[in-house]
Amino acid sequence: SVKGGRREEQIDRYRNPEIGMKELREMTDTVTEYKRFTHFETRVLKEPLAEITNHTSFNVIYEKVKKGRSIES
Fold it and tell me: Which of 26, 53, 60, 58 is nearest to 40 (CA)?
């Protein structure tokens, strides 16, 4: 806007936040559990997000951001 509202870039960051793996593991209290990402993804990401999508009006999806071979965020 002319008077200086939020830029499209800022709005996009609010809509699609990026959370690092270390921070996500701390938030979900799984720092020592699910060492393999496939187990973490199944138990902590896929199953709960499917429940959220099925039982609420929210449509939650995620996208893996890779750095090299490992998942960064």
Answer: 26
Do 65 and 72 touch, CB atoms closer than 8 A?
yes
What would the two tokens of residue 24 be?
A: 């996500």
Paired tokens of 53: 């999508």
Amino acid at 10: Q
Domain borders along the chain are 20-71
In terms of pTM, does the model score above 0.85?
Answer: no
Residue pLDDT, tens place only, 35-66: 998 999 999 999 999 999 999 998 888 899 99
The torsion angles phi and psi of 66, rounded to 5 degrees, stand at -100, 145
- The alpha carbon of residue 13 and the mean position of all alpha carbons in its chain are separated, in whole angstroms, by 12
